[in-house]
Amino acid sequence: MQYGVVGHARSGTSMLMQCMIAGGLKPVYDKAKEALLQQAAPHANPRGFYEMHTDSETWQHPGWNLKDCDGNWVGDGRVRKFDIFSAYLAHPYRYKMVFIQRPYSEVFPSMQKVREKLGEPMPWYMAKERDYDTVIQHMQRMLLNRKDMDIYCNVVNSPDLLMYKLVQKRGWEIDPEAAAAAVDPLLYRERA
């Protein structure tokens, strides 16, 4: 089985990737993009971003036929992070997904800091909270149609609860205690 972490930028997807790795899954991400992000904004995600380059360039096959960050062909027991706007989220491919949410009041200042450091503009829908909420609600409606998807908030406050739910309710093959222990509340800097 393969696994995916989904969420808006600055919502905690990198933290959740760290949990999945600590729980025993192997990450799929772009090492070159990781190096660029760490150079531009090292304090934004000191433990790593775990980003793919783009879906169109590195994620063309629904069966996960690509190489991981070490050049090995991807097989079962792998986890990758999906962009919230990924076209692949609407298709029922063979992977289990978890969608992480974070309120606008926390996402906006965190994202603004990182975008400034990267020299990138904010997305249009970040100008107003209601536009952000509309985008998130649209994604939730689309994702709830998937039988392999769960949506969670407040991972920092109760990581053990999420990890046990993923194992017991959804059959994720992770060590829930090791995964929960990877959460560092000190890295949760922008709060509502």
Please summarize what this structure is.
The protein has a single domain (2-187), classed as Rossmann fold (3-Layer(aba) Sandwich). 37% of the residues lie in helices and 13% in strands.
How would you characterize the overall build of this protein?
The protein has 7 helices and 5 strands. The protein has helices at residues 13-22, 31-40, 55-58, 104-118, 129-144, 159-168, 176-181; strands at residues 2-7, 26-28, 78-83, 95-100, 149-152. The termini are far apart. Mean pLDDT is 76; it is low at 55-66.
CATH topological fold name: Rossmann fold
Question: What is the level 1 CATH name?
Answer: Alpha Beta
Task: Give helix and strand order, one letter per element, not per position.
Answer: EHEHHEEHHEHH
- How would you state the average pLDDT, rounded? 76
Helix content: 25-40%
Q: State the CATH architecture.
A: 3-Layer(aba) Sandwich
Q: Which structural class best describes the helix and strand composition?
A: alpha/beta
Number of domains: 1
Determine Rg (CA atoms, Å).
16 Å
Number of strands: 5
Unreliable residue runs: 55-66
The tally of helices reads 7
What is the end-to-end distance? 36 Å
The major beta sheet can be summarized as:
5 strands, parallel
Strand order of the largest sheet: 2-3-1-4-5
Give the percentage of residues in beta strands. Answer: 5-15%
Oligomer: single chain
Q: Can you tell me the CATH superfamily?
A: P-loop containing nucleotide triphosphate hydrolases
